[in-house]
From TrEMBL:
Pfam families given in the database record: DDE_Tnp_ISL3, Zn_ribbon_ISL3
Name of this protein: Transposase
Stretches assigned to the Transposase IS204/IS1001/IS1096/IS1165 zinc-finger domain: 39-81
Domain Transposase IS204/IS1001/IS1096/IS1165 DDE: residue ranges: 158-254, 376-513
InterPro entries: Transpos_ISL3, Transposase_DDE, Transposase_Znf
Organism: Microvirga ossetica
Keywords of this entry: Plasmid
């Protein structure tokens, strides 16, 4: 069998090489079609009557580090069909080898398309130049847009969620086919009316996985009332944890009382802590003014006008979500405090000397930090040190209360034990949240009704009210296997594509790159 390399094997299928010309930066190949006849594009009748010829140029894949330009001798044929309205036509090349009016062969167009999908405009153009492919950034994007295809498979199970065009300003919507694990369409906004119109055009959908926002649930209920809605399990777990954190924040005054940190002596504060304490007093004054007006049944709008504060802040104060507690700021000295205490007890009272010695032990703070610590120690020797008892933040308390006792230090265990003894409603809230998350993990919705009744009388009543309003979707999340996690993963890929385009890609281009890359 002859294994020698023929020139025709280097050009697209169906062409015959007549001659080649080697130039410094390119290879020019003169080719013609192997076929003797050609079918009329209008009627399909084969013809061999050649009317004329013309030269056509097209780019092909590079060869030996040089660009390849094809010079294609194209024939014009006469159509002999009596009823055909086309008398003369140019020959076509089979299998998309060289489409009509194209300046690139089909195989080069395929490479250009995938370069545009993977890299976008400018990066792909720069890389294509290194590959000796003559293509510009605008051409790359035009190819991506032109070859974009919408999935046509019927949809049964979808996931829907929003993504940010610009965070806190403008959002869009992504819809994913959860069965085939691929995005289907991008919508320009997250308005319920837009999602409702799209869902109405796809009546084959029977299951919709979504987050717990009310917009998509309302749109799905109106457009496809027969479809099963599934609340996203991750959001249910995260919302439950956030509800317990809010319960801790509402209980901070009781927590401070039970752990003995109710009194603050300003005389024992350092300069930096005194500034923090003054801000705390201003916030407390604001809270008291708003609560005083609320106790006299003054509407929220009126409170906003009289106090000059935002509606959000006023609502937080009235709902008990802005119960501020003064906390000593965390210091960079925390890892070095045992050594400093030992030196202080041994009689070393010079802050500058302690700072120099501490720097040798790896401390990177300034002399002022050591000076404030020494000032505190001197003042504490003359006053009741319990007045400066530290209280952890609400987030820290929530974490410690949901962590196993065997993973806590002795001081943390004592603190949490005091809170559990003195703030029983918070313990009940923790129990409810743990039970709810256990139902999600074990997919056991049997106890949900009883849980809702207990939670409606607890510190997590707001979370329980939201679960009640979306009970059907929550139950579906506990029983069905579908989840919106695949949609969240596609949003991560969408963010990557959008950032490659420096956030300037329009909806059609972003959708073409996201869906075309599957």
């Amino acid at each position: 069998m002859d294994q020698s390399l023929r020139p025709s094997s280097l050009v697209p299928e169906g062409f015959l090489v007549e001659r080649t010309t080697l130039e410094p930066d390119r290879v020019v190949v003169w080719v013609r079609s192997r076929q003797l006849d050609c079918a009329c594009p209008a009627c399909g009748v084969l013809s061999r009557r050649v009317h004329s010829r013309y030269l056509r140029r097209a780019a092909d894949l590079p060869l030996s580090g040089r660009r390849v330009d094809l010079r294609v001798m194209v024939r014009r044929f006469r159509c002999d069909a009596v009823l055909c309205g086309r008398q003369v036509f140019s020959e076509r090349f089979a299998n998309g080898v060289l489409p009509p009016l194209a300046r690139r062969t089909g195989r080069l167009e395929h490479i250009v398309h995938h370069l545009g999908l993977a890299l976008g405009g400018r990066p792909a153009a720069s890389f294509a130049e290194r590959l000796m492919l003559p293509v510009s950034n605008d051409t790359l994007l035009r190819v991506v847009r032109r070859r974009a295809q919408q999935p046509v498979d019927p949809l049964a199970v979808i996931g829907i969620d929003d993504f940010a065009w610009r965070r806190n300003h403008r959002y869009g919507t992504i819809v994913c086919d959860l069965e085939r694990r691929r995005p289907v369409v991008l919508l320009p906004d997250r308005e319920p009316a837009t999602a409702q119109a799209w869902l109405r055009d796809h009546p084959s959908i029977v299951t919709i996985a979504r987050d717990r926002g009310g917009g998509y649930g309302e749109a799905a209920a109106k457009a496809l009332p027969h479809a099963i809605q599934i609340a996203d399990r991750w959001h249910l777990m995260e919302n439950a944890s956030r509800a317990f954190l809010d319960a801790v924040r509402k209980s901070m005054r009781q927590i401070r009382s039970v752990i003995g940190a109710t009194v603050i002596d300003p005389e024992l504060l350092t300069a930096a802590e005194r500034i923090q304490y003054e801000g705390y007093l201003r916030r407390e004054e604001t809270n008291m003014a708003i609560l005083a007006l609320a106790q006299h049944s003054v509407p929220i709008k009126q409170i906003v006008r009289e106090t000059g504060h935002s509606r959000k802040l006023v609502r937080q104060v009235i709902r008990g979500e802005r119960t501020d507690v003064f906390r000593m700021r965390q210091s960079s000295l925390e890892p070095h405090l045992p050594w400093l205490d030992g030196q202080w007890d041994a009689g070393a009272r010079n802050a500058t000397d302690l700072w120099r010695r501490l720097k040798q032990r790896g401390f990177r703070g300034s002399l002022r930090v050591i000076g404030e610590w020494a000032t505190r120690r001197r003042r504490a020797e003359k006053a009741d040190t319990e007045a400066l008892h530290r209280i952890p933040s609400a987030r820290t308390i929530a974490r410690l209360m949901t962590t196993g006792r065997d993973l806590l230090s002795k001081s943390e265990t004592v603190t949490i034990a005091a809170i559990e003894t003195g703030v029983l409603p918070l313990v009940e809230a923790r129990t409810l949240i743990i039970e709810f998350q256990s139902m999600i993990r074990n997919k056991a919705p049997a106890g949900l009704k009883n849980w809702l009744e207990r939670a409606s009388q607890s510190l997590v009543v707001s979370f329980a009210r939201g679960v009640t309003n979306d009970e059907a979707a929550v139950r579906a999340a506990m029983t069905l296997s579908w989840s919106n996690g695949q949609t969240e993963g596609q949003i991560t890929k969408l963010k990557l594509v959008k950032r490659q385009m420096y956030g300037r890609g329009k909806l059609d281009l972003l959708q073409a790159r996201l869906i075309g890359a599957i």
